[in-house]
Amino acid sequence: MNINERMKLHLLECDKCKRKLGKNNFQKHYKVCDGNSIPKKKRKGNGQTWKKGKTYTEIYGKKRAKEIIEKIKKNNTFRFTKHTEESKKNISLSMMGNKNWEYSINKSGRGKKGHYKEQYFMSTWELAYIVYLMEHGIEYKRNWEKFEYFDINGNKRYYVPDFIVNDSYVEIKGYLTKEVELKIKSFKFPLIVIGKEEIKPILNYVEKKYGENFYDILNDEKYLSKKKTKLCKCGKEILFQSKSCISCSSKNQPRKIKNRPSLDILLDELSKSSYMSLGRKYGVCDGTIRKWIISYGEIPPKIHKK
Q1: How far is it, in rounded angstroms, from Cα 194 to Cα 186?
Q2: Cα–Cα separations (whole angstroms), residue 279 to 2, 115, 293, 295
Q3: CB 11 within 8 A of CB 22
C-alpha cells in the first residue's frame, strides 16, 4: 500500500459537511463546521470584510472607541495636528529653492525621463527635440542655470529653461498656465517657447523615422544601469563621486604617529619585549609594527617565548 492509501484509512468523515480529516484536526473542525464542504479561506465572496464602512463606535462601542482614538492620537500626533498659516509657509519655504533642487530635477513632473547618447531629457518632447537638433547639425546645450522671479503672492521662486540654442533660451511646454506665463514675462533674456503646434513637425519627423514608440527605442537603458565613473590620477577607474582610489588615498593620508621610531630602536626594543607590548607603547597594534619594519626593507624577526 502507498502512503496516501494508508493515510486515508486513518481519516474520519464529518457528518455535517462530509469532509475527511485526520484525528488531530477532526475535533476542532467539528465544533466550528457550518455544513459547507468548501473551507472558509477558499470560498468566493464579494471580497469585502464585515468591518468595511463601519465606524469604531459601531464595531467596538462608545467606551472602547474613545480609548482606541486616544491611543491613536498619542502615537500619531501629525495626523491630528492642524497647521497654522506660519507652519504652512515654513514647509513651503523648506521645499523650494536650493534645498529641493536635486529632487525637482530627477523626480518631479509627469514626463518620461532618460538618456539619449549621454544627453539627459525630461520628457518625450524633449527627446524628439534633441534627436531633431542632433540629426540636423544644430548645436545646443542643456541649461542648468536658475533665474529668480516672484510669483503672484510675491514669493521668491526659480525658473530653469530647458535648452540654449543659438544664444537664446528654449522652453518646451505642452500647456500654458498663469504661473508659466508669469515666468515668461519676468524672464529678461531672449526666450523661444515651443508649444503643441510648434512641436508637431518635430514629432512627425521622429515618428516617421523611429516609429511611435521612439522613447522605448532611443532611451539608453545601459547608461542608467551603469555607474558613472572617472579616472584617478594614477589611471584607475573610480566612481564619479569619489576623489581618488584606495591606493592614492592611503598614500596621501597623514600619519597617525608622526615621529615613527627608527629601525635600530624597534629591533632593540623587540629583543627585550614582544610586538604586543611595543604596540601598546606607541598606541598601535602588533601588525603595524611589523609593517614599519617591512617599510624599512627588513623582515620582521620571530620572537620565541622563553
Answers
A1: 18
A2: 71, 54, 13, 16
A3: yes
In sequence order, what DSSP letters do the residues of 23-59 get, joined into one string? HHHHHHHHHH--S-SS-TTT----S--TTTT--HHHH
Helices (H) and strands (E) in the chain, counts: 16, 12
pLDDT tens, position by position, 67-90 = 888 887 777 655 556 778 888 777
Integer distance in angstroms from the first to the last C-alpha of the chain? 74
State yes or no: pLDDT of 260 exceeds 70: yes
> CB within 8 A of 114, min separation 6: which ones?
120, 121, 127, 215, 219, 220, 221, 224
Q: 113 near 105, Cβ under 8 Å?
A: no
Residue 36: is it exposed, middle or buried by C-beta count within 10 angstroms (0-12/13-18/19+)?
exposed
Phi, psi values for residue 302, rounded to 5°: -90, 135
pLDDT tens digits, 125-161: 999 999 999 999 999 998 888 888 888 888 888 888 9
What pTM, to 2 d.p., does this model score?
0.43
| SS3 call for 142 | strand
Q: Quick one: how far is CA 233 from the chain centroid?
A: 30
DSSP tag of 219: S
Helix (H, G, I), strand (E, B) or coil at 146: coil
Residue count (the chain): 306
Which are the contacts of 175, defined by CB distance < 8 A and separation ≥ 6?
195, 196
